[in-house]
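Design request, tokens follow.
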């Protein structure tokens, strides 16, 4: 959690606007909350599918604690718990501005669009996470290779969490499945202080596919 709060401080220092998945728990929930406390609610835009939003009673809202696991049994827990009065739209809060969308595909597309609307240094940053996190990291890396976007993808590799993935990339380059230049699309930051410089200094690979994606 300390790395998440420090990342929020770095974003605040560099006037970064955060786009994220809209949840209130875990590392990204902490980044969002910390950045809003420093920069205000308009500094954070969360985008979340309706299926991951739980409409709660006053009592269950009181029992929902940031970062706490669900006690509702197995399966994917809600990433956001809201009051029934906010079911048609979540107002600005300690987690910033939130947009509810229909599905996961819309969520990812809208998040990517918002990031690509940004100025110099815009890009994608990943903290530690599970299946969903790695899926998003690899999709944004693949989109870069395909020429859909040309901004950086940075892994914040605290305590070696991403060492296994980075070793896989190196092996894929060695075995010829990824070119040496494209192997650098996915950048590593070992300290929070390296994230912003890595995004600013990102150089587009000269071996990306030269494809015409139109309005993609």
């Amino acid at each position: 959690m300390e790395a998440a709060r420090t990342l929020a401080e770095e974003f605040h220092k560099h006037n970064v606007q955060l786009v994220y998945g809209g949840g209130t728990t875990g590392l990204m929930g902490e980044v969002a909350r910390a950045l809003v406390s420093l920069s205000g609610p308009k500094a954070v835009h969360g985008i979340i599918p309706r299926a991951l939003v739980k409409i709660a009673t006053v009592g269950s809202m009181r029992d929902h604690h940031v970062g706490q696991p669900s006690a509702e049994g197995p399966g994917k827990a809600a990433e956001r718990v809201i009051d029934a009065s906010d079911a048609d739209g979540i107002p600005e809060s300690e987690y910033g501005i939130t947009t509810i969308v229909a599905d996961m595909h819309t969520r990812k597309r809208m998040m990517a669009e918002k990031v690509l609307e940004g100025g110099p240094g815009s890009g994608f940053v990943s903290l530690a996470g599970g299946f969903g996190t790695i899926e998003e990291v690899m999709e944004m890396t693949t989109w870069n290779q395909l020429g859909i976007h040309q901004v950086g993808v940075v892994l914040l590799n605290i305590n070696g969490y991403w060492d296994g993935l980075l070793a896989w990339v190196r092996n894929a380059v060695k075995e010829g499945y990824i070119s040496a230049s494209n192997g650098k699309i996915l950048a590593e930051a070992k300290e929070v202080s390296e994230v912003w410089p890595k995004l600013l200094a990102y150089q587009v690979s000269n071996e990306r596919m030269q494809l015409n994606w139109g309005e993609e």
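Comment from the thread starter after seeing the answer: thanks! Residues 131-145 form the longest helix (15 residues).
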